[in-house]
Amino acid sequence: MCGLIVAVGAGMASAQDRGAVERLTLETIAKDTAEWIGAPPSQVRWAEDGESLYFLWNPDAADVAELYVVDRDGGEPRRVPPEARRFVPAVDGLRNRAGNAKVYAALGDVFVAGADGTSRQLTATEATETNPRFTWDGAAVTFERDLNLFEVTLATGEVRQVTNFLRGTDPDAPPDGTALQTYLEAQQRELFEYVRKSDRLDAERKDRERAERPGRPVPFYVKDNQRVADLELSPDGEWVTFVLADRGDARDARVIEMPQYVTESGFVEMRTLSRGSGIGRVKAGEPVMTYQLGAVHLADGTVTWIDHGLGERAANFNAPIWSHDGQRAVAWVGAADHKDAWLLLLDLPAGSARVIATDHDEAWVRGFRTGRLSRGDGIVYGWMPGNDRVYFTSEQDGHYHLYVTGLDGGEPVQLTQGAFGLVDLRMSRDQARWYFVSNEVHPGEHQLYTMPLEGGERTRLTRESGWYGYVLSPDEQHVALTYSNQTEPGDLFVMPNRTGAEPARLTDSVKADFRRHAWQTNEIVTFEDGEGHTIYADLFLPDRPHPARPAVIYVHGAGWAQGVYRRWSGMRPFLHYLVQQGYVVMSVDYRGSRGYGRDFRTGIYRHMGETEIQSGLVAVEYLVREQDVDRGRIGLFGGSYGGFYTLMAMFKHPGVFAAGAVRAPVTDWAHYNHGYTTRILNSPYDDTVAYEQSSPIYFAEGLQDHLLIQHGVQDDNVHFQDSVRLAQRLLELKKDDWEIMIYPIEAHSLRGEEYNRLDVMRRRAKLFDRVLKAPRQEMTSSGQ
After folding, report:
1. Between 572-580 and 754-772, two packed helices, what is the crossing angle to 10 degrees?
2. What is the DSSP string of 344-406?
3. How far apart are CA 215 and CA 568, in angstroms?
4. Which residue, of 66, 281, 451, 619, has the fewest CB within 10 Å?
5. Which among 560, 632, 571 has a CA at the least distance from the CA of 603?
6. What is the mean pLDDT of residues 270-285?
7. What residues pair up with 294 in beta bridges, in sequence order?
C-alpha cells in the first residue's frame, strides 16, 4: 500500500533495478497472483464530488477482491465497510443531463449519487431492479423489474408502473384452434342467450375494474419463450421502447449439459450451461434467439413493431439511442449472418425506419454477434450536438476509426485516420472534444488522446511507454489512469486533465516477492509473413542459453486478442521461467490477432489454422536465422485458441515443432459456441468445407511429434468433450508419443486451484526439457 504521491517515471523502476536476484520456480508461479505478484486495481470509478476514487483491490491476497477508496490527492487507500458498499456508485451508472447526479443499480436495488458525494437508496425490495436511468427532465428515475418498466419520482419517492408486460396468453384474445373449434364457438354465441350474457357480463366487469383503477398500464402478453429487455421511456414520456428476444426455433436447439464428477452428493450431477439471461449455450449452427424492436404507446397501450425495412434479410435490433433534444432515435440492426449492419433512424408512430449509415464486410463486421452488439468490441455510436448528425465507429478504411453521418444517409465523414485503432471513445461533457485510447504509437501500446469534436490534431495526454486505461472525473478536470508496462503489473494513478501533466501514483500493488525476481524488458521484433503482413513478436533471450539452443513459442488464446504488448500479462512468469532454463522464447501475434486492423483480423475467414499458422512458421525461420536456434528443437504451446493453433501447426506441419503442449484446445469448430464461430466459418451445414479445413480433428493423422493435451473437466467455454473426441481419434489412428491429463474440477481459465496450475506447468516444462534438450541420438531414435 502507498501513502505518498509519486510521479509515474519515478515509480516505475523495474524489479531488476532494485537488485532482484532470485530465480523463478514453478511452485512460485503456480501461486495465486495476488499472493506473490499483486492484484492490480480494477473497476475504477470516481466519487461524484471528484474528491476520491473507488476501485476493487486485493492487497492482502484474500479469497476475493474488496472495494477500496483513496483520496484524489493521495494517502492510504481505505477498505470500504460492507454496509457502505451499496452506496458507492457503480462503474456502469448513468448521469442525468445536468451532469450533477448518477443513477446505478447495486445488489438488485436502485441508488442515486449526488454531486456532494452522498448516495440515496430509491428501492429496497426482494425483486431485482436493473437498468436504471434518469428521465429526460431528471425529476424521476426509471428501472426494470419483472419484465416491466417502473418510474420513481425523486421528490416524493412515489413509484408507478409504466408498462404491463405479462407472461402468458391474453385472455381477451381469440383462442387458437382448429377451423371446427372456431365454428362451434361462434355457433354457441349465435344459438344461446346464456353464452351471450356471460360474455357481456365479463366485458362489463373488466370495464368497471379499469374505471376503478385509472392510470394503470394496459397489459401486453409475451410468450413463455420470449423475454423483454432494454426498456426505455422516450423523452416526451409517450413511448416505451423495448427489445423482444424470441426463442422461436431456438427452443429446438439442444442446450449443452456438462457432467460434474466431484460433487457433495457423491453422485454424478449435470450442469446446464448458460450464457446469461437464461439463454442456453448451444453449438455453432443451432437456432438462436431473434431480437425485435417494439414501442408501447402509453396513452392506449398499443404496441408498434419497428420494421427494419430489409425485407426477408434475417437481422436483429439493438436498443435505440435518443437525440439530445429528445426528438429522434437511432438504432443499429445487424445481419444474422454477420456481414452487414445498418444504422437506422426510427419513426415510432409509423413503425418504420430509414437507413442512414451502413457497414459491410465480406468476412464479418466487427462489433456484432448474430446481429447483436458485442460487449468489449462493439460499435460506439451516439448523437452529435445539434441533433442532426450521428457518430459511430467502423473499420471501413481498414482500421477502427470515428465517423459522422447526417440524417440524410449521405457519405459519412471520417474524423480519424491512420494505421491504428480507437479504444474507449467518449465525448466530453461540454460536447467540445473526444477522448480515446489508441495504439498509434505502437501496436503494443495504449496511450490516451484528446481531439476536437470535428476532428483535427490529436493531443497525446500520456507519455510513459506502456498500456493505459482511463476514467475521467465527473467535472473532467482530472483523469484516473491504470498503467502497466512489461515489467510492472498494473496500478492506479491520477493526473490533471491537461497536456504535460505528470501522473501521481495512488496505489502500490506489487508484492515484495515479485520484486525479488529479475524481469526482462524483452525486445519486440518484427518480420514479414508470406502475404506481406508485418508480424510482431515478443522475444526473450536467456542470459545462459542451453547448449542445445532450444526455443519455445507461446501462442495466445482467444484468436482476436493480443499477446505482444508493452504491458504485464499473466503468462510472463512462465515465459521468464523458460528463459531461465536456457530457452529462447517467443510470443507471436499471429494473423487474426487484435490491434493490427481489419485485414489482419479477418485473415482467418473460412480457413482457421492456415494464415495464422504461417505467422508461426515465419517465426521459426526468424529464430533459426537470427537467434541460432536449432531447427529440430522448437516447441509450441497455448491454451484455448492457442491450443487449437498448436494442434493445427503440429498436425499440418509435422517435424517443424518437436513438442507441443495444449490446454483446453478447440478440436472441432462445429462443437464451439454459435456467436463466436459462425462469424468466422458461417454455419457447419452451409459451409462444411470451412469447418473441416479449420478443425484439428480432421488432421490428426498428421501427428508425428510429442503432444501433451491438458483439459479441465468443468470447462464451460471449450468443453472437455473437445479433448475427449480428439483422444478417441488419436487412439483409433494408433498414434504414439501423445498423452492427455484431465483436471476434474478445473474450468477454462486456470484460475482455480494452485495444485492444478502447478501440474499444468510442471508437465509442460518436463515435456520441453525431455524432448527439446535431449541428446541428438535420443531425438533421432524417437523419429525426429
Report:
1. 40
2. EEEETTTTEEEEEEEEE-SS--TTEETTEEPTTTPPPEEEPTTSSEEEEEE-TTSS-EEEEEE
3. 58
4. 66
5. 560
6. 75
7. 242, 305
List the single range of 315-324, 475-484, 589-598, 735-744 with lowest mean pLDDT: 315-324
pLDDT value, residue 7: 47
Query: Which of 480, 490, 481, 461 has the alpha carbon at shortest distance from 52?
Result: 480
Q: Are strands 706-712 and 381-383 parallel, antiparallel or unpaired?
A: unpaired
Q: What is the pLDDT of residues 316-354, one digit of tens each?
A: 999 999 999 999 999 999 999 999 999 999 999 999 999
Residues facing residue 54 across a β-bridge: 45, 69
Q: Residue 329 is placed in which grid cell?
A: 432515435
Amino acid at 280: G
Nearest-10 Cα torsion for 621, 622, 628, 633: -50
Tell me which DSSP letter residue 501 carries: P
Cell of 255: 442446450
Q: Which helix (H) or strand (E) holds 738?
A: strand 738-743
Whole-number Å distance between alpha carbons of 722 and 667: 5
Per-residue CA distances from 279 to 253, 288, 426, 538 (Å): 11, 9, 31, 39
- Model confidence at 21, pLDDT cuts 50, 70, 90, reads low
- State whether the Cα torsion 212-216-220-224 is positive or negative: negative
Q: What are the respective helix, strand and coil percentages of the chain, to the nearest 5?
A: 20, 30, 45
- pLDDT tens, residue by residue, 701-747: 999 999 999 999 999 999 999 999 999 999 999 999 999 999 999 99
Return the DSSP state at 128: P
- CA–CA separation, 358 vs 332, rounded Å? 9
Cα distances (angstroms) measured from residue 272 to each of 145, 264, 266, 296, 771: 25, 18, 19, 35, 40
Note the pLDDT of residue 376: 67
Region 412-428: mean pLDDT is 97
Overall pTM surpassing 0.90 (yes/no) = yes
Instruction: State mean pLDDT over 403-417.
Output: 96
**Mean pLDDT for the stretch of residues 356-364:** 96
**Three-state DSSP string of 517-561:** ECCCCCEEEEEECCCCCEEEEEEECCCCCCCCCCEEEEECCCCCC
Cα separation, 132 vs 730, in Å, equals: 53
Domain ranges, ordered by start, for the chain: 173-216, 521-779
Dihedral of CA atoms 461, 463, 469, 475 in degrees, nearest 10, equals: -30
Which grid cell is 204? 362489463
Give pLDDT tens digits for 515-563: 999 999 999 999 999 899 999 999 999 999 999 999 999 999 999 999 9
Count of other CB atoms within 10 angstroms of residue 41: 25
Q: At what angle do helices 193-212 and 179-191 cross, to 10 degrees?
A: 90
Residue for grid cell 469448430: 669
Question: Whole-number mean pLDDT of the chain?
Answer: 92
Convert the pLDDT of each residue in 218-247 to its tens digit: 899 998 889 999 999 999 999 999 999 988
Q: What is the mean pLDDT of residues 672-678?
A: 93
Pick among 3.30.1330.60, 3.30.160.270, 3.40.30.10, 3.40.50.1820: CATH of 521-779: 3.40.50.1820
Nine cell digits for residue 194: 346464456
Of 765, 381, 368, 760, residue with least CA distance to 581: 765
Q: Do 507 and 480 meet the contact criterion of CB atoms below 8 Å apart? A: no
Reading the block at residue 337, the C-alpha cell is 449472418
User: Average pLDDT of 486-505?
Assistant: 97
- State the Rg of the chain over Cα: 29
Complete DSSP assignment for 166-233 = EES--TTSPPP--HHHHHHHHHHHHH-HHHHHHHHHHHHHHHHHHHHSTTPPPEEEE-TTEEEEEEEE
